Amino acid sequence: MRSPSLLSLLSLITSSLASPSSPAPNLHSRDATTNLNLSLPQHPLSINLKPQQTSTRDLVSLDGLWSFAIDNTTNSTATPWTSPLPKGLECPVPASYNDIFIDRNIHDHVGWAYYQRTVAIPRGWSGQRYFVRLEAATHHGRVYVNDDLVAEHVGGYTPFEADVTDRVNPGESFRLTIGVNNELTHETIPPGTVEVSEYTGRKVQTYLHDFYNYAGLARSVWLYSVPVEQYIEDITVVPDVDWDEDAETGIVHYTVDTSNGTGSIEITIADEEGNTVTTASGANGTITIPSVHLWQPGSAYLYTFTARILSTSTDPPRVVDTYTLPLGIRTIAIKDAQILLNNAPIYLTGFGKHEDSPIRGKGHDTAYLVHDFELLHWIGANSFRTSHYPYAEEVMEYADRHGILVIDETPAVGLAYSIGGGVSSADSPSTFTPEGINNNTRAAHAQALRELVARDKNHPSVIMWSVANEPASDEEGARAYFEPLATLARELDPAGRPITFANLGQATYATDTISDLFDVLCLNRYFGWYSFTGDLDSAGIALKEELTGWSETYPGKPIIISEYGADTLAGLHSVMGLIWSEEFQIEYLDVYHGVFDTFDNVVGEHVWNFADFQTKEGIQRVDGNKKGVFTRERRPKGAAYALKKRWSGLNNTGLGTE
Ligand code: BDP
């Protein structure tokens, strides 16, 4: 059972994020290991299971056009805009708002923006408890029912909810206003800095990652109901396999959390034909599935796990609540510098991606979702990383159904003050300081990790957690910052998935201070682009030298090259293979692949990036980052065909092409 009052939890989250309840350790000691406080401040979670329509639950989409306004005042304590918004602007949900309107003021806005619409609670919902659920509000959301604040959440890429049961009766309507704030500070994840221009008085946002800081309601908003009597709050399934049998036996450890009540819990597992293969009773237990169909890349067999609460006060028993979960049975382990998926080595092919498309920005779009996965399939990719934040839950579900492996990343990107979107500045300040990335940043980071694992723990597609992208892991303070987070990541996942982080080029095997805390070495490398620009001979030698160093320093750990790539202007050709041309991108990848193939412990290659994507305005990029193998509109560059050829010939990708 979990705590009954969601609202009190939500306010607790906000207040505890603002001022951590337990004193956090000093991150800046020279001897970091003696100064560790492993007890990170605890924040309750505000996430129930993703809403679904079942015989006991209702689901109403609140997507569509909402009234919209931005708050141009610099005073963050100004009265929230809960009165009816001025007529005029309508903003689509889901979508980032930045590129929708032809208005620089909105595009560049820093601060609160407001979405508003009228919502009716269906008449038939008496006897139900009902929630407004936001899949994401980037980066800080507030939910108002008429004039009252009912929920608040910090963190732009994970869901949260407001229980509105006691505020609006079935059959009544209310004004739903959602405030969304896009400000990033040194204590948010991802971090940034807000300054006020002395000339215009306008807020200006800077940040350390290159992708554009899209904001708004980029994912769906729902109104949904659950039975008041008792409902299923959470389900955890941990799959395993007994390999000793002739026919493999699937094992499922499960836990069902419910609200207070007296019903009994029944579990059914059905196969893809809908036949029940096994049943169980009780809030937790272990179920076996003889002759199990394994979940594999490219062949994603999914069972259906159904949990029901039954009231035995009637005969036959009455179903109080029911929820179904797709269930993939597979194992993931690290052994002898290999990643074992279902007990066999797997080689990862694929990309770092972004949620990014023209006009919608980071808005979830099912057409792009399906088309992107079609392209992954076409090119022979078996995996991707959710660089640099958790993606929409629909993406994870689609990966489950289509057999794509996912390295699931937190929004902790930009924790290296030496980097500005991939372009180094030599005399940058230290990263881990009280004025920089500090204990409060780490508390926000820990909360982002908790919410990521809570949301995605049941997905068979998720094979690894990435705790951060390119932190300054070579700087003083990095170990004190990351050691508790690595411990937390292990504690959070009952399935014990491997953990990793994407390592920054400047933090080499000789200077990095945290890689021993992780299971898999994910390395982002840009020899030939940010260093040895255009000189692929030197790039190949430097890459080989570095991989040798990592292999010797961490002999048991597998290596994935989690980023390598070159900006490429689609349609630009060069007979001499000069940089920015399609020929250079092909040659660059080819040099890297030649080196990878000489290392048995290199077990994956994720090209940066799947597609061109929008970046912050700056003098180093022309209309975004062009390292895509596809353009932003998803047209192939020459490298797409080269990758397709290579990946279709590789062993151990699990795609049946070898
Ligand atoms: C890496 C970052 C990635 C950038 C990439 C680049 O991890 O987010 O987009 O560089 O500069 O440092 O293309």
UniProtKB/TrEMBL annotation:
InterPro entries, sorted: Beta-gal/glucu_dom_sf, Galactose-bd-like_sf, GH, Glyco_hydro_2, Glyco_hydro_2_AS, Glyco_hydro_2_cat, Glyco_hydro_2_CS, Glyco_hydro_2_N
Glycoside hydrolase family 2 immunoglobulin-like beta-sandwich domain mapped to chain residues: 231-330
Annotated ranges, domain Glycoside hydrolase family 2 catalytic: 332-651
Positions of the Glycosyl hydrolases family 2 sugar binding domain: 60-227
Keyword tags: Glycosidase, Hydrolase, Signal
UniProt EC number: 3.2.1.31
Signal peptide region: 1-18
GO function term, MF aspect, one: beta-glucuronidase activity
An annotated GO BP: carbohydrate metabolic process
Pfam family, one: Glyco_hydro_2_C
Family designation: Belongs to the glycosyl hydrolase 2 family.
Protein name: Beta-glucuronidase
Organism ancestry: Eukaryota, Fungi, Dikarya, Ascomycota, Pezizomycotina
